[in-house]
């Protein structure tokens, strides 16, 4: 079956896009070969006056390039030739004398959008599945099919940089507003509207420019100012760890200064250069792993649920409710307080209203989603639910009480999932009638934005409970990692190792900002002390008092009571406007120098940045190794996914285990031995690291 099929309607060629044996259309070398033949047909057939590209996939126009094919390329020369070949074809398309119309419904991303931009006219549906974007920067790449050039031509420099440097999605109404598409229509009338445009012809309208755009984009001085500011922002945010954004800016600047042909050649060269970088390889591997994670979904009837009960209407409960109704589930939201229920509904409503204002969600869709929530203060209203998720305060007695009420009220096969970051699931289930139904579902805050769900299982948790929790998590848009029960599970445990070591460096005399800046330079999006302020110092102290703190103590690691002293002093972080930093109502946060009295004195000293990074970063890496060694995580791949998506471990490294692979296990072991000699037992290298170093093995 061919990728392209031409169906003529009078003198209009409707080109149907339908990649065989694939749920979506993607660009590949095989497709590009067919595309050249297609253009020959359109160009040489005198009966064809115009052509329309229309996808037969229900929710996809063209979803981008075949990433696995790209990864299989053995050299950067291959990548450069792919980009050059693609650019040659799309330039040919753009220069065809016959009108070419893209009739777009569904995802139009990466190379798909580059294809659409090379067409002469773009008409898109307003369907919620229609979305545009150039996500290549998230993969450590740049758009290699003219994206750095045509985006600027269509939407202007500032809008183009926003798309190119963030990779964010653009929805239909915004796309029309900025000039990315020419016309919008409902999905059902898309093809007929495109045929009408092809028959009657069209007149390209110039994008409306505000005064600021005229000043900044209409002169070389203004353009240079925009590019200069963009470089400064990129450098500040990436801290030199991600080469793609700067390469994108280079291509844009060359195109503006020297013309389209020079810009396209720079694009192909940049595409080839980025192909060989470790950042690109790691980010693409992460993307593929996230895609493969969706394959964990079970289709067995006994593993499906339709109705979910949510106990606890706080910020986490509201977030879990929001992602659940968006996934199609009906939710019974229970709390002890009507005020709490009202607050949760307001949080969800406000989030949806933001989407409505951006025209990324319709009013009717918002109201239908909100109608999926039933609120209650009565346990009896939960009796028919298949899955109960509990997200109350981290108090084991309270969670056990809720579990007992659920077992007394609900069906004997109802799954009970507790949202906890550190309380052992086995302890919560200690008095359960049906311990096989008990599971942990650890969400990360804010739930609608954070992509990870850590599922925690005990030695009694049933396969059915695991399958149901996994299915729900995937439906909610989460990447799911299943871990074994234990103090802190995986994510909280390795995060605690990181923050504990940051406190030791603080005690050694480093300043708060030096520690945070060193770890941001290492690749973390947020420094460890800033993170403690965001999580809540009181929460960290609560975790340290529990089983996780006891586990570290049993390993011989000296207890650190400084975090408890801060909590006792009500220095909780952002929530109390004061922690390691001071958070004014207006303006930027500043270092709280008064906190130094808990860590020696206000006098601080300069410590070598690399030493600080190794001490803090490898504490986390070694803890991840111990989790793999003990079977808390089942694979290094899971450990990488969870560390990046849940904790912000530097994505360009691929995760803690990929980081070891890149540096070499023997190199990491040497550094760990030095840290062990200097700082003692907490840096004793994991046995698995010693084994891999001695046998020259790799983790992934």
Structural write-up:
The chain has 700 residues and is of the alpha/beta class. It has three domains: 4-276, Alpha-Beta Complex (2-enoyl-CoA Hydratase, Chain A, domain 1), CATH 3.90.226.10; 295-484, Rossmann fold (3-Layer(aba) Sandwich); 491-695, N-(1-d-carboxylethyl)-l-norvaline Dehydrogenase, domain 2 (Orthogonal Bundle). The strands form four sheets. Strands 12-11-10-13-14-15-16-17 form an eight-stranded mixed sheet, sandwiched between helices. The radius of gyration is 27 Å and the shape is globular. The mean pLDDT is 95. GO terms for molecular function: enoyl-CoA hydratase activity; isomerase activity; long-chain (3S)-3-hydroxyacyl-CoA dehydrogenase (NAD+) activity; NAD+ binding. Residues 308-485 form the 3-hydroxyacyl-CoA dehydrogenase NAD binding domain.
Briefly summarize what is shown.
The chain is α/β, with parallel strands linked by helices and 700 residues long. The two termini are 37 Å apart.
Topology:
Elements: E1 4-9, E2 12-17, H1 29-44, E3 50-55, E4 60-62, H2 67-71, H3 76-94, E5 100-104, E6 107-109, H4 111-118, E7 121-125, E8 131-133, H5 147-155, H6 157-166, H7 172-178, E9 183-185, H8 190-200, H9 211-217, H10 220-238, H11 244-258, H12 260-275, H13 278-293, E10 307-311, H14 315-326, E11 330-334, H15 338-357, H16 363-370, E12 373-376, E13 387-390, H17 396-409, E14 415-418, H18 425-428, E15 438-443, E16 452-457, H19 463-475, E17 479-484, H20 491-507, H21 512-522, H22 528-535, H23 537-545, H24 547-554, H25 562-568, E18 581-582, E19 590-591, H26 609-630, H27 636-647, H28 656-663, H29 665-679, H30 687-695
Parallel strand pairs: 2-3, 3-5, 4-6, 5-7, 6-8, 7-9, 10-11, 10-13, 11-12, 13-14, 14-15, 16-17
Antiparallel strand pairs: 1-2, 15-16, 18-19
